[in-house]
Amino acid sequence: MTATVKYDQVEVGQELTAVDYRVRRSNLVMYAGASGDFNQIHWNERFAKMVGLPDVIAHGMYTMAQAGRFVTDWAGDPGAVVDFGVRFSSMVVVPDDDQGATITVSGVIEAKLEDKRVVVGLVARADDAQVLSKARAVVQLS
Amino acid sequence: MALNRDFVGRSYPPSAPYEVSRVKIREFATAIGDNNPLYRDKEAARAAGYPDVIAPPTFPIVFSLQSGGEALADPGLGLNFAMVVHGEQRFEYVRPVIAGDELVSTATITDIRTAGRNELLTVRSDVTTIEGEPVCVTYNTIVERGGAA
């Protein structure tokens, strides 16, 4: 139950190296089943276009999960995340091909708090659009 | 149609207990492409100080909306589900969700507001074990597109 990152080793303004996460149609089908969110806009192209979307789009929570993975991989312990919030600012369009879409997540240490906690500001982009805004995690470091 | 502001502050009865299984955690971790051993390997989780495998931070979305769903389906609220998209999501954790947990969620509508042409509604879910131990609090904000027009 301990983060591998030490509080004394991080500084405000420090950037966390960006990571690319690929999302294909098959990921969305799996996520629908695992999460219980079977909204057709996440797997049925015909339905998505009928309701005015450009194509099938990823679940917002799928994108949030990638930002979460970015934080937990950095912190070393998922249990070190004490607060995690995002706003869904744009959709991630997932074409029906082998490439799918790419969600690029990056982060920066925004603040150092008491009790060895830090605020990590997160940015998630897909196709040059910012898909998460106001994305922040508070992490308990060691 | 504007949402009924009288619903702000309403709480709903706790959900039926949700039993967290190792299999479901593994399925969820696989779906998000996360190979962290703490989500899959009981021994690795124990070595890290947990009694069993833990769940990824966004896992509570699987069960935390059950109680709130009843609120949103109330015809008196005036919500048009066809126009709903997910606006914001936040989790405050007391501890991670752990396999074997039996969890109940209690939903409260905490806010309804207008933003441009849209209506925004926030449901807070307090997640505890069946023994009453707090585990996390989730905040789910949905957007009803055009609801305020």
Describe this structure in words.
The complex is a heterodimer of chains A (142) and B (149). Chain A has helices at residues 25-35, 45-50, 60-75; strands spanning 15-23, 81-88, 101-112, 117-126, 129-140. With 142 residues, chain A is of the alpha+beta class. The N and C termini of chain A lie close together (10 Å). Chain B is α+β, with helices and mostly antiparallel strands and 149 residues long. Chain B has a domain at 5-19 and 60-144: Hotdog Thioesterase (Thiol Ester Dehydrase, Chain A). Chain B contains three helices and five strands, in the order E-H-H-H-E-E-E-E. A five-stranded antiparallel sheet of chain B has the order 1-3-4-5-2. The radius of gyration of chain B is 17 Å and the shape is elongated. Chain A: It comes from Nonomuraea longispora. Chain A: It holds the Pfam family MaoC_dehydratas.
What can be said about this structure in brief?
The complex is a heterodimer of chains A (142) and B (149). Chain A has 142 residues and is α+β, with helices and mostly antiparallel strands. Chain A contains 3 helices and 5 strands, in the order βαααββββ.
